[in-house]
Amino acid sequence: MADPIYRRIAEQLREQIESGELVPGAQLPTELELRERFNASRNTIRDAVKSLIALGLVETRPGQGTFVTERIEPFVTTLSADPKTGLGGGEGVTYQDEGRAQQRVATATDPRVEIQLAAGVVPVLLKIPEGAQVVSRHQQRLIDNTPWSLQTSFYPMKFVTAGGATRLLEASSIENGTVKYIEETVHLKQLGYRDWITVRSPDTNETAFFRLPGDGRVGVFEILRTAFDQDLNPMRLTITVFPTDRNQFIVNVGELPGG
Fold first, then answer.
1. DSSP 202
2. Looking at residues 61-89, what average pLDDT do you find?
C-alpha cells in the first residue's frame, strides 16, 4: 500500500533538511508555494508540515511562517553559590564567568529600570506590604548572540530613599554587581539565597523574544531567587526566565572534586 501523499511530501522536505539544502533557521516555502510545487491540497500540505513539527524538524512562528528548527547547544548554569564569593550562580559576573568557562560569549543588555508597586509574589517573598514601592531592574541576556534568559531583580525602595543606594535607579550596569553595591551603601550583606523553580508555558513576549514555537510545546523555567541579609531578612528578589530547549542546571552540595 502506497504511503499517503502528505507523508511523501514530508519525506522530501525532511531529506532537504537533513542534506543541508534547507539549513537551520531557514524558512520553508509558503503553504501556497508548497501546494503548487506538489500539486496538493491545503489539508495535505498542512498534514505534511504537522508531521515535520512532530519530528522536531520545523517550527511555526506566529505571523512569520514555518522554519527549520535551529539546533541550540545547551548552556549549563550552576545554581548553587560560588564558594569563593558567595554570589548566586547565573547572576551578574557569575553569568559571564560561566560563559567564559564554557567557551561561550555571555552578554546582557543595559538594565531597564522602573519604580513599581509590589504585587503578586514580590511582596510575599520580600516580606513588604502589597503596593509598597520597589525598584525593578530588567535585563535581556544572550549566549553567543542567541536570546537565552530574561532577568528582573526587585529591591525595596527604602534602599534608595533611606539607604542612599541611588545607583539602583541608573539604567546602567553597576561595577562589581548590585550585591556588592548594596553591601557598601546600605550595609546589608547577602549571606544566602533560596531558589524556587517552576515550569510553565511562555507568555507572548517570551515566545517572541526567545523565538519559540507558537504552539507552547517549549516551556520555560522560572526561577525565583530570594536573597537574605545578615539578619536573615529578604533583601532582594530576582526572577529569571529560561527556555527549556537551551538551558540545563547544576546544583553543587558539599565537598566535590575539581576547581
1. -
2. 82
Q: Are 140 and 105 in contact (CB under 8 A)?
A: no
From CA 104, how far away is CA 143, in angstroms rounded? 7
The C-alpha cell of 6 is what? 502528505
For residue 42, CA distances in Å to 5, 6, 117, 185, 213 come to 12, 10, 50, 64, 21
- How far apart are alpha carbons 225 and 239 in whole angstroms? 6
- For the stretch 116-124, contacts whose Cβ atoms lie closer than 8 Å and that sit 24 or more positions apart, written own/partner, are 116/154, 118/154, 121/224, 121/237, 122/154, 122/237
Query: In terms of DSSP bridges, do strands 146-156 and 192-200 run parallel, antiparallel, or are they unpaired?
Result: unpaired
Q: For residues 194 and 150, what is the distance between their CA atoms, to the nearest angstrom?
A: 19
Which CATH fold topology does 5-68 show? Arc Repressor Mutant, subunit A (1.10.10)
Would the pTM count as exceeding 0.90?
Answer: no
- The CATH architecture to which 75-250 belongs is 3-Layer(aba) Sandwich (3.40)
